[in-house]
Queue: 4 jobs
Job 1
Amino acid sequence: MTVINGLDILVLLKVVALSEMNIPSKTLAEALFVEPSEITRSWKRTRVAGLSYSFNHEQRVNRAGLLELLIHGLRYVFPSERGAITRGIPTGIAAEPLKSQFIDAMSEAPVWPYAEGQMRGYSIKPLHRQVPRAALEDPKLYELLALVDAARGDRVRERTLAGEELTKRLMQDA
């Protein structure tokens, strides 16, 4: 039985953010602050789940499948639960590209708990422990992860707008 985990989603989103094919596991591991063996296992799980495939010895993302999971399934597998007020990195509607559309909601800003974060808000558990660190290193990945957090939420408007933005970003290069 294959069970997708948060690292698998993070790996797939990083590949999408890089817009490249044939990215060595070592490169992905360094960019995501994990071990190369974790990347190898992640590719195996995502292939079995149909979220990635191998073509000419290259690992590729099934963008349509990933998009379907992000928009319609992720909130059931990785629900976004509000935690305690903490210092962290803005996510969901508190980060772009959605932030400008939710100016009135900033009193309830979601954040990934992170000691070096500059914002206070209610905590949202990230998909993987290295999400805040990896997001700070890659603005494109950060946007994707923030959109995913909005899609994981329970508010219809946030999920709808996040779904539209994710569709644009995932399907633009497909």
Job 2
Amino acid sequence: MLEIGAGLGSLTRLLAASAGHVTAVEIDRKLIPILHEVMASYTNVNIIEGDILELTPRSLVEQDGYIVVANIPYYITSAIIRHLLENPPQPSRLVLTMQREVAERICAEPGDLSLLALSVQVYGKPVIAASIPASSFYPAPKVDSATLRVDLYDKPFLNPPQRDLFFRVIKAAFSQKRKMLRNTLASGLNMPSEQAVALLEAAGIDPSRRAQTVDLVEWRTLVGELENSHTLA
């Protein structure tokens, strides 16, 4: 297991009792001596001082299939998730405590999809496993939290080259999410509007739709059309 934000080791002890090995990352230097003291009796815990965004998963775990457990600061939720999912080795599951509103956005369905939701859902299936009221924490934050569980797909939904193109396309599409896809893709991908319309229609997507209504399967089809057309360099 990889724990991000081990703090004083309250959760680390529980993880160590059930896991074969735990790598616990903590950014606060002042907490490291306490964490070492609390975990002194456990031989299967490796404590790392550092910022998870500056550490590669490869430097922390040796193989695919590890589980990530974290209480994530709200302001870097998206950055941490992308960092873990886009750098090998690949985890099999993420169990993350975060702002409830963010967790709900990640679990959104077509009609309410966002760049963040698609950026997670392309790797695995997210579900809200538990709701945690603000009063459960001390000091209490101003927002409620939730535990988000993301089970990663056994087989990639898109291969790496397609994934790069996928992110390029959805970033263009959500750059002006109130506008129709034929306009956002033409502008964001620097192509004539007629060409954007043709690609969307070839993928079976109405050019007048908005980005938040398009599901992952439709995005994958559109990526395939773009690959076949050799439109983008």
Job 3
Amino acid sequence: MAEKLLNDEIRKQVKEILSEMGGKVKILFFNSDSNCDYCSTVEGLIEELTEITDQIDYEKYELDSEKAADFNIKMVPALVLLTPDGVDKGVRFYGIPSGHEFGTLLQDILSFSNNAKPELSPESLEKLSKIDKPIDIKVFVTPTCPYCPKAVLTAHNIAMANEFVTASMVEANEFQDLSMEYGVSSVPHIVINGKVTFVGAYPEPQYVEEVLKAL
């Protein structure tokens, strides 16, 4: 039997956190049988979550599947969360959501179980409602970075606020080619539509302004 990723103490804490779930969340897990060092770890993690609560279902797809094309998944391991109604809000995880990012995943699961209502100020929501072109936010993280979850959660909330926005956590060490392409040297490193970049967990109003610059 494979060794558990979550020890008893953590499982107990996770069970407590997920007991607040409002409805069922579906997680789509994308993997590849070839050339994916971290896929089995991510799958193991999601399987353990489904053991802890019956409010999480997961489906597994290959990178070359139609489903991956539908959700525009081009690298693995990848996770996509869906609301109880099966709605995709543009929230993505690339790589293992471990360390500080495990908490981000749990927070997103809770949020999605309550239909993924964005936790943003009315001012931010008003500004974001004007986005009418595709926006892609990548937040490069490492598991040990304490400021990264805030940067990821803000991006995910922005995606929840507007259907044109996709926001992804990208584990910088697992996707080194991509990290090099965008010149990632410290995290959180945020890239919007491949051109607007900034480093650090900006406060929400500034973050929203950076997103709007990409328009």
Job 4
Amino acid sequence: MTFNPNARIDPSRTRRRRGGAAAGGVTLAGGLGLVALLLLSNWLGVDLTGLAGAFDGASRSSVSQSEESLDACRTGADANADIDCRIAGAADSLDVYWSGFFANQGLEYRTVRGLYLFSGATGTACGTGQTGMGPFYCPGDESIYMDTAFFDALAAQARTEIGPLAQMYVVAHEWGHHIQNIGGIMQGLDLRDTGPGSDTVRLELQADCFAGAWIAAAATTTDDAGVPLLIEPTQAELEDALAAARIVGDDFIQREMGGGYVNPEAWTHGSSESRMRWLTTGTEQGAGACATFDVPASEL
């Protein structure tokens, strides 16, 4: 899915953080020790349980960083050419979509406080986030954090290029966690339980479904002048997004990291098949069909 080159994007929600790389930090591509520790709880996930010690306990102030705006990202052409601008454009489209959805439901919406791009490590209200954790949403500051190097690691896992829509699916998934947070869906859940039918898996599959709902409607989101931000996705682009969902399935990750061993009782995000199916549910039926908490475990 590409941007309309003439569309004007608002990059104000997205910022790039510089500095703050942790000494001895581990990257997603090369740090298999850290990644193996985090795969089941944090890969493309939401930080709600303290990340089982994955954060180093540092406060926001312990990581010295500077922030810069993405003011150069102004058009759809910029988003098509540059990964930072593409994420900023996706955030703009997601904000337009979800604000409209909430308004149609008579609900109050608030956007994410920030979408932060970083390298190495970054301070958050949930502790210190690191590259090896993959993209994540922090409810404490209602912000999304991601190192774009994640897409290179994802491509290495998929053994193929990760296209623009697959990249934006990752952003949309994390935005889905924000929707769950402000919509009260996260309240009262047991997010320490694991397994195919756990609340944690249901939360992740719903975020996939929410991402699919945005993908289906993204071509209808417009800039302030009414110009569509994005062009209708092709079938090949949809398949690319599904491929990304497949390789962040718990069973796929366990096979890759554990020599073929799969333990469903340790799942926190759902199987590849489930993640692809709920992403498809969102694209075909919209956000109203994302009722992952209303179906038996056998139907997840």
